[in-house]
Design a protein that fits this description.
six-stranded mixed barrel; alpha+beta; two-stranded antiparallel ribbon
Amino acid sequence: MALETIWQDVRYAFRGLLRNSGFSAAAILSLMLGIGASLAIFTVTDNLLLRPLPYRDAGGLVMVWERNTRLAGEDHNVVSPGNYLDWKRQNDVFESMAGFRAGSSVLSAGSRSEQLEKQLVTADVFPLLGVQPVRGRLFTAEDDTPGVNSALIISYRLWQSWFGGDEGVIGRKVQVNSTPRIIIGVMPPGFYLLERETDLWDTLGLDNRDYRKAQGRWMRCLARLKPGVTRDVAQSHMAALAQRLETAYPVFDKNWSVNVEPLRDSMVRQVRTSLLILLGAVGLLLAVACANVANLLLARYAARRRELAVRMSVGAGRFRVIRQLLTESVLLGLLGGAAGVLAAKWAVQWLVALAPRKPLTRNADLLRSAYTLLRDRRFGVHRNPVWDRSSAGRLARTVGGWPARVRALECRRNESAASVAGRRRGCAFGHATRGRYVAVSQLRRVADRQSRTRPLRSADLPRIASCCALSGSFAQPVLLAGDRADGTASRRARRECCQLPSVQW
């Protein structure tokens, strides 16, 4: 009997909502917006700030940065390999330390080639994180020896998309930047280290030479605290170690200290404040939505006062009327909640789609390039004889196509800026180099050297630029189009190309 009465109340409440479609739509829309926005932002906040990282004992993982004590805002600078090696040998607060850097490379297997995101890592990165491959093995110390780095680890996503989940992928030979590699492992699904789009892991190949004499700061350092050691203790110890290194290397390490930061803070540093503000804002939005629905219900009950009086006069009890009103409110809340969950699911997918897959600087570079192209087309610079005679204009005509024209326009603009600044930074020219660029003058010198060996082709320039701007490993040249199989046609040109310094925008 009670179930029949409840079902009768539900049907009556549903018919009442249909009769008052304007009220129902306003209330459900208010709840959908409040609940949907709150769930979407909380889902993102939970994944980034609250949920444990997918690493072993993630609370003990820290990033170790170099900090410039003289310049404001330089608290999270990349690390010198020389300092990293000294930290690893002399520290007493870390259980283990590892180094890595991000880049991109062209993977070739058979007739297929694609540019993919890559990380160069030391052999102890994966054991430090506590992850194991789903197929194959991890890097060993022998794999990380300079000149022996032929091993390659791929992501689970790449294994499925490129190789179709083939169980025989381990031991398969591929080429990375035209250099032979052997796949030795497949990482578990969803694994990443700071960069979610990474599909390749190669060895960094550090040795014991003094990197301070030939290289600057270009790598990142990850460490695991010893049991019982806090971040503050590690910060004090590493700051003292940095002072000793500054005394030992006064030219290179002057005004440089160390900043120890928890790994999670390093991953969400740039979005934490924004997420917390958004979380508070959507919380207020949900409160406003609930207050709005409450006001709508009160107005509707006031309008139904005559109806409720008639029902009570014909024998309906007070409890029966209250139960009917509560049923209508619960049904309205369920409909608004269901609509809010669907809206939150769509909103999360939309936010993920909007999330930049590259660092913010790359997006800013694209905007600057588009603006420069539109501005120079508006004023007819691309048809200007002065522009046509300039080095950037000749380069644009040689490479061909509007993407090259965009890059050449950027070169022209940045060459002028660099000349004003004493040409300290060089011209920004790059071809799929993940933020690494080569000066036009450097590119022209390499092209001239290459043309002495054989006629220069238009397809060579982008590949030379990729070679010159390899993210870190300048000992891995990209084979140029038309090289002979024995590699003697342009060996000197490739060697000189890859020894050129690259410039960070």
